[in-house]
Amino acid sequence: MDFDLIIIGSGPGGYVAAIRASQLKMKVAVVEKAELGGVCLNWGCIPTKALLKSAHVLDYLNHASEFGIKISGEIKADFSSIISRSRTIAEGRSKGVQFLFRKNNITHIMGFGRLSGQNNIEVENPDGSIKVYSAKNIILATGARSKELPNLKQDGKKIIGYREAMTLPEQPASLLVVGSGAIGSEFANFYRLLGTEVTLVELLPRLVPNEDEEISKQLERSFKKLKIRIMTDSSVESVDTSYDKCHVTVKTPKGNEKVETDIVLSAVGVTPNIDGIGLESAGVKTERGKIVVDDYYRTSVPGIYAIGDVIPGPALAHVASAEGIICVEKMAGLEVDPLDYNNIPSCTYTSPEIASCGMTEAAAREAGYDIKVGKFPFTASGKANASGAKEGFVKLIFDSAYGELLGAHMIGESVTEMISEIVVARKLETTGREIIKSVHPHPTMSEAIMDAAAAAYDEAINI
Question: Which residues does the annotation mark as catalytic?
Answer without folding.
Answer: 442
